[in-house]
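The following record pairs a protein chain with its ligand, guanosine-5'-diphosphate.
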Amino acid sequence: MKVVAMAGGTGSAKLLRGLSRLPVDLTVVANVGDNFWAYGAYVCPDVDIACYTLAGKADPRGWGLEGDTFEALGSFASLGLETWFRLGDRDLAVCMARTEMMRRGSSLTDATDRIRRSLGVRCRVLPVTDQPVETRLETPLGDLHLQEFWVRERGRPAVRKVRYEGAARAKVAGGVKKAIEGADRVIICPANPVTSVGPMTAVPGFIGLLSRTEARVVALSPMVGRRPVSGPAGKLLRATGVRPDSLGVAGAYSRFLDALLVSERDAPLKSSVEELGVKCALTDTLMRTPGDEARLARELVEA
Ligand code: GDP
């Protein structure tokens, strides 16, 4: 079975670990909206956390490499640079290597492929597009990059508007198109609908690919009740006029979604989700252990 997994950051990484243990041919399509320039290097948090997790090298805190050191960051601080964006030494080396490969003419797709191979990751990891797409938030502090909003400002500013800069000019990467067209199943990992899935579906042609594919398109909801399991998804759904719960997620994805796995605690939403034409399966949606990751991966492949 050919499975394409659309992935954002931390929640997605847990499910990717579960999927990688199933006997399926897995391709990861990663969000690029939170890519960011830091310390002269091009940082791709979602692409990298997918690679680090699949290589068994991710730090349990949810970003970076396990056991990494922070010497470079200390030097940047003593040189007077702002260091609110934390990046370990080996993580920085990966980002600098990518920057150098791209400076010499590689696409982000090719640079990612070299990086995932060097880490020993067997499945393909594909950025959704090779063109820059940046999630930007309009706040009382001004127009902020997602990382400035979430990391520097700790998600505190009110959000008036979200936009995906560059998306209109971006193209779905060739490998992504091929993978979705040839897939038996597309799985939308638990990801922030606004900052992880939104930048992917904002790339012209991506929604068409998902709607046309013969593959069943299934998602694991990141929401339990009116709250996300973690992160700012609730606040950002509200800011974009979407109900901050699994019914809101189903509505946002209904153009291409066949089935949604929803927390048992949200059983009262089931009939409303199904009225949108989306099959709603109730389950324990929390991934606390590798056992949960594997169980949910199986349930999604079977949903
Ligand atoms: P974030 O919002 O910045 O964290 O961006 P991500 O795209 O990385 O979002 C991860 C999403 O996964 C968040 O909306 C979480 O609510 C969700 N999440 C994290 N852990 C779990 C989990 O164990 N189960 C489910 N269903 N969702 C999760």
